[in-house]
Amino acid sequence: ILNSEFVADILVSVRAKKIVASVVELAKQLDLTVMADGVVNKEQAKELFGMGCNIMCGSYYGRYTAVTII
Q1: Can you give the pLDDT at residue 50?
Q2: Can you give the C-alpha Rg of the chain in angstroms?
Q3: pTM, full prediction
Q4: 24 exposed, middle or buried (CB, 10 Å; 0-12, 13-18, 19+)?
Q5: 10 Å Cβ neighbour count for 58?
Q6: pLDDT value at residue 32
Q7: Which residue has the higher pLDDT, 21 or 62?
Q8: Eight-state DSSP code of residue 16
Q9: CB atoms < 10 A from the CB of 49, how many?
Q10: Beta strand 35-36 with 55-56: parallel, antiparallel or unpaired?
């Protein structure tokens, strides 16, 4: 689970974006599912999806939602 504090800053902080991208990449290499918590807008969702995040939740979606459903 990607902490909402990192997700909140991915559009404004290079450091947060690198941390999230690194966690997603590591999870992919280990065949793990990645869930991002605290997604509040479309731009964050697009960024996370582009990184390979599998599941996102937050006020943008409501409840936990698989990317394939969106």
Answers
A1: 95
A2: 11
A3: 0.81
A4: buried
A5: 20
A6: 93
A7: 21
A8: H
A9: 15
A10: parallel
Distance CA 25, CA 32 (A): 10
What is the DSSP secondary structure assignment for residue 13, as one 8-state letter? -
pLDDT at 63 over 70: no
pLDDT tens digits along 5-51 = 999 999 999 999 999 999 999 999 999 999 999 999 999 999 999 99
Cβ contact 56:63 at 8 Å: no
- Position 11, amino acid: L
Token couple for 28: 């992919």
Residue 30 tokens, joined: 């280990």
Q: How far apart are CA 66 and CA 32, in angstroms?
A: 14
Q: What is the DSSP string of 18-64?
A: HHHHHHHHHHHHTT---EE----SHHHHHHHHHHT--EE-STTTSS-
**Tokens read off for 3:** 């902490």
